């Protein structure tokens, strides 16, 4: 079995050998049970993961195509190298749900999203205003951000510019340390020095969003690493997400609630510039996109 970190790297590439087919297919994968910020109870979440979003193939030994095709470039082979056979069959674009997807109106390739209003009502795919997005594959509903303009908080509670430090008081799930309260820095909407409920950390942000009943719900939380990775569109970058449903996604790290095993000062974050995960110090201000279980 592949190391999880290596698996993630491989799945971001075009798979050109049969041995990588199982590693890149997400069809039967499940998210694990975990504790979540802002809930106080373990949340059991076992939806299927999305496919990668990769719909292009690669030639051998070099070059990427715009469509799901592949060619052996004999003129580029090493001297004496001979290669025969179907090099496309085991590539990512030829496998899984993306290969079977027939339309893109509800999300690119096999991604399937539903726009949601502030009151929690379902909206058509061409709606110009929406506050949340429900993922019909994973069963998760996601917060949508307001446009970034490099000014903290001026777009309100969901400003894409706003930054938060990692702070989670549940000692059974925070990896042995609460993180940083971030009492000093005005990096988010509503911050007032000396008023902890306004501080720019992920837990206080969860509380404020739940108080405001985003999309008619009060059970918003910080996503796990696996949940946040389910949004990544590996077929594109800058940002690595379907921007038709998640506009105003910044090319930066987004916090997950998942602590890094053996490192009390760090937690996992996902780069939506290129789609990879990395451990970051908890006092590192980053953005966050909240989630809830829609099903």
UniProtKB/TrEMBL annotation:
Annotated ranges, domain Lcl C-terminal: 132-292
InterPro entries: Lcl_C (IPR011460)
Name recorded for this polypeptide: DUF1566 domain-containing protein
Domain of life where this protein originates: Bacteria
